[in-house]
């Protein structure tokens, strides 16, 4: 690499990460930066402008770096391409003032503030002292967020009413009646800091309570009647942000329908083996009661841990070559009040905090195995964990940016969906019960493409469809369609719909990302012929760092 005075793209990218961590200590905590543990970001309009200015300055530095000798190497070129695409997409979202209506049930400043405490170190008294300071920082942080939402109201940039109602409900759960989530969390701290932690947790709870009341009494009436869907222009903006590509949305919509029909035929075949004459969803309902299940929340957490440990043991050396620190992954139970979908958190940069999968229980204590197996191949191994932990492992060969904050959602979700398919290809879905669960998960991703694009763009339902042919999609029709084509409970379906309304363009990245990964693998296979080595291809693909879908197929094909 070049010297600091004449940086190359990877150095520009890493300098951006350092500067971003200074502005966004939540990102710093996820990366494992100790100095971040005491602070929270500034979500006010001024804070947003600081981050936007950092992006603009970095793009200017990147242009200079790309002209320097050595910038045309494969490593520098790939990093530069990612950094330019990501920052340009983020600036487009910012310039459209989307952060002024950032309310949603899964991904918002509120969720970031609470979520960071679940990954903040708690091993020492000093760690807990930092947590107390961060809890005391919550009021100022939320006040900045409220200022942004208030400005959005002034500028007629409302969030959807359904998002607001859902988030108020989540805040009710976080705040509780006797003790809040923050008070429960702080109760695990050392006795020596008991009074300080209790007071700090009460301060944080009070700030969340004030914001909840403002959302309910001021913001909700202010956005009453606002549209829930975003329209083609805003959707294209967000689609680029989440997918790293300027997609042909009409082609993607048609692809969703083609996958729907393919999967429906496969599901009917598997359902016939389980409950002859039944529809796939009747067979899944039968399995909910009579199929293989795990009883107990802690028992389920342990069962999922064993599933991931077994997958690592059996895949390492055969289809992957895993470093020792990548082999460590922890199964966790998600905190109460989370959205319905399971999720994964990446290890810290030094692996002192391992990668973790999180199961929201939604008040349940019995979990059907058909719904767990493929989901944990997606969230854990060989899905999110193998990709994101491998990025962390090879970060010194890439850049911190490519391995962490430059992550493109559709790349990661596409790999995780590819991982589910891979386990099916390798024969790990050992019976019709587990395979129907896998196909149901695949169907959910195909339905996401249909309803996410369909309702936000208000597209027409195909005339040959058996579901409201010729009508135009609405959120109500989307929820009905999803409910008809899912084995999941009604509260999950509703949570998912709110998620799609609040994160336009994100949910389509699973299936479109999987398509990119499959296309790249097939192109590489065709190029190498009989010499194609799947294990070698997997490790090379997982060691590239993040890429948007515009670049992913090209890079995977060349491996």
From TrEMBL:
Pfam families: DUF885. It comes from the Bacteria. This is DUF885 domain-containing protein. It comes from Streptomyces palmae. The lineage of its organism: Bacteria, Bacillati, Actinomycetota, Actinomycetes, Kitasatosporales.
């Amino acid at each position: 690499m070049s010297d600091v005075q004449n940086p190359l793209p990877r150095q520009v990218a890493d300098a951006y990460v350092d500067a971003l961590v200074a502005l966004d200590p939540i990102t710093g905590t996820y990366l494992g930066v100790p100095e971040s543990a005491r602070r929270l970001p500034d979500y006010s309009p001024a804070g947003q402008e600081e981050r936007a200015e950092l992006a603009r300055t970095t793009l200017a530095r990147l242009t200079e770096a790309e002209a320097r000798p050595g910038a045309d190497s494969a490593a520098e070129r790939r990093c530069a391409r990612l950094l330019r695409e990501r920052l340009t997409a983020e600036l487009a979202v910012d310039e459209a003032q989307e952060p002024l209506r950032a309310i949603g049930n899964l991904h918002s400043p509120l969720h970031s503030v609470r979520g960071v405490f679940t990954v903040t170190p708690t091993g020492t008294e000093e760690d807990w002292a930092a947590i107390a300071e961060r809890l005391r920082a919550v009021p100022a942080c939320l006040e900045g967020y409220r200022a942004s939402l208030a400005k959005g109201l002034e500028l007629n940039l409302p969030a959807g009413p359904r998002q607001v109602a859902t988030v108020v409900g989540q805040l009710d759960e976080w705040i509780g009646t006797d003790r809040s989530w923050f008070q429960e969390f702080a109760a695990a701290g050392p006795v020596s800091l008991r009074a300080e932690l209790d007071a700090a947790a009460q301060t944080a709870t009070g700030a969340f309570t004030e914001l909840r009341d403002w959302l309910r009494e001021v913001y909700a009436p202010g956005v009453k009647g606002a549209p829930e869907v975003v329209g083609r222009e805003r959707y294209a903006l967000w689609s680029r942000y989440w997918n790293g590509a300027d997609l042909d949305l009409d082609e993607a919509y048609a692809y969703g329908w083609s996958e729907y029909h393919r999967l429906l035929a496969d599901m009917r075949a598997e359902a016939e083996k389980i409950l002859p004459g039944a529809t796939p969803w009747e067979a899944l309902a039968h399995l909910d009661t009579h199929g293989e299940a795990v009883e107990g929340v802690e028992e389920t957490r342990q069962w999922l841990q064993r599933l991931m440990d077994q997958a690592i043991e059996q895949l390492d050396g055969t289809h992957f070559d895993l470093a020792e620190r990548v082999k460590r992954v922890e199964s966790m139970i998600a905190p109460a009040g989370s959205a319905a979908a399971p999720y994964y958190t990446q290890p810290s940069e030094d692996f002192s905090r391992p990668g973790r999968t999180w199961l929201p229980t939604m008040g349940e204590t019995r979990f059907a195995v058909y719904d767990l197996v493929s989901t944990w191949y997606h969230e854990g191994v060989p899905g999110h964990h193998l990709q994101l932990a491998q990025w962390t492992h090879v970060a010194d060969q890439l850049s911190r940016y490519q391995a962490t904050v430059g992550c493109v959602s559709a790349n990661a979700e596409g790999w995780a969906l590819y991982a589910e398919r891979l386990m099916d290809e390798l024969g790990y879905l050992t019976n019709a019960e587990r395979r129907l669960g896998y196909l149901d998960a695949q169907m959910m991703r195909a339905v996401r493409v249909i309803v996410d694009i369909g309702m936000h763009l208000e597209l027409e339902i195909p005339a040959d469809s058996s579901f409201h042919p010729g009508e135009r999609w609405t959120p109500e029709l989307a929820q009905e369609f999803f409910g008809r084509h899912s084995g999941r409970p009604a509260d999950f379906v509703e949570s998912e719909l709110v998620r799609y309304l609040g994160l336009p363009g994100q949910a389509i990245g699973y299936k479109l990302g999987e398509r990119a990964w499959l296309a790249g693998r097939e192109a590489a296979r065709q190029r190498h012929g009989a010499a194609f080595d799947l294990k070698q291809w997997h490790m090379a693909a997982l060691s590239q760092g993040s890429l948007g879908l515009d670049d992913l197929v090209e890079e995977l094909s060349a491996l």
